[in-house]
Amino acid sequence: MGMGTAITGMSMDDGGDRAFFSLPPRSGGEGRRAPRKRRASGWGESSSHVQGSPPTPDPSPPRAVRAGGGEKEASGEKEASTLLRLMAWLSPAFPVGAFSYSSGIEWAVEAGDIADAATLKDWLDVMLTRGGGYCDAVLFAHAHRAVIDNDDKALRDIAELAAAFAPSKERHLETTAQGNAFVEAARAAWPCAALDALKAAWTGPVAYPVAVAVTAAGHRITLEQALTAYLHALTANWVSAGVRLVPLGQTQGLHVLAALEAVVVAVAQRAGVAALDDLGSSAFRADLASARHETQYTRLFRS
C-alpha cells in the first residue's frame, strides 16, 4: 500500500447498518501516531532514548550478586587449577621414570606369588595397607604439614628419615631417583618457595613422597587431595607393572585398580592423622621381593 493511498473500511452504526469510513491519505508525517515515550528500563537507558535503537543493558549485576559470584568463580578456578596440577604431576608422562620401577613386583611374579588379577590385587592391598604404600603416605603427610607450618627443621628431619627408610637398595634408588627428578621438573615449570626451602634445608637425596608433598603444600593444595591423588598414582603404576609382567589384559588391570579405590581412600585417611611413631612395615614378603630383585637373573624393571 502506497504512502499517499487513502485507507477505507466498514463499521457498524448504532442501528446495525453498515457505514463506510475513510482515513486521510498518509503523506509525509500526516496520519502517523505520535511516538510513545518509553519508560526508563533500569539498565542504564536515559530518557532521551532514540526511537528504533535497542536499549543497552548494563553488564554489571547488582553488587551483592557480583560479590558472591566472584567468590564462587575464584573457588572454581582454584579447584580446576588443583585438579590440573595433580593430574600433570602424577601423570605417567611426568618425567620421573615411574614406568621403569615395579617395587619388587617383578620378583613376585617370577616366584609365583602373583599369577593372575586376584593375586595381584591381594599383593597390592598388603603393600598399600601394611607396606611401602602406607609408609610413603605417612611421610607424605608429615612433609606436607611441615611446609604448611613453615617448620624447616621438621621438613629436614622428614626428608632425612624418608631417604633412609627404604627397605632395600633398589627401593632407595626408586624413591630417590623419582624424588630428585620430580623436584627438578616441578621447579622448572611450577616454582614455589616451598621447593626452595626444601633445597636449603636438605641437601641429600629427596624421597618421592616428600617431593610431591612439598610441591603440593607449596601450591596450597590440601593434604587430603594431594595424598589421595599420590596413592592412586602409585597404585596405578604398580597395576601397570603387573599387567606387563603376569601378563594381564588391560581390562583386568582396570578391575584391579577399581577394586583398590576404597583401600586408597582408607590409607590416605589413616596416614593423614598418623604419628611418626606409627611408621613401619609388616609386608615382609614385599620388602623381601625388593631385595631379591637385585640378583634376579632376567629383569625388565629397575626395582
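(the above was protein one; protein two follows)
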Amino acid sequence: MKKLLGGKILLILVCVLLGCVSCMNDGGSDWVGKWQLRECQYPDGTVQRVDSIFYGFQKGSFLAYCMNEYGNYEAYYGYYKLKEDEISIILWPDNSAGNEEAHSNLINSAGYKKFFNWGEEGERTFKVEELTNKKMRLNYQGVKYVFRKY
C-alpha cells in the first residue's frame, strides 16, 4: 500500500512539475526563446546579411542584443503584444507619462538609430509571415526580416 501511495505521489509531483515548466516558457509557444536575425530582404530585391542582432521573447518581455562596431553587445529591453498575425514590439522606456526624458534619451541614442530607428515612438508593428519553432519571418512595409531560432 505504501509503495502504491508513493508511486501516486511521485506521479502527481511529476505532473505538477511539467505543468510549471510549460507555464514558465509560455506553454511551448514558438515565440519563446532567442532568435538571430539572418537577413533583411528589401522590396527592390536587395538582401542584407546580418549575424549580430538577436531578439528574445518570453511572456510579453522583449530583449535585443546588438553587436556594435567595437564587438561589444548593447542590450535593449521592452515588451511585445501579439494580435492575430501581428506582433508589436515596444522598446523601454516607452513614451508614457513620467518616462519622457528617458524615452528621449533612447530614441536619440546612436545605438537606437543604428539598430532600430523605429521613429519617435520607439515601437514597431510587424506582420508575421512565418513562425515555426525554427524560423521566423516578419514584414514591415515590404521589408522582410528573417530570423532563425538560436
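Reviewer note on protein two: Residues 13-27 have pLDDT under 50 and may be disordered.
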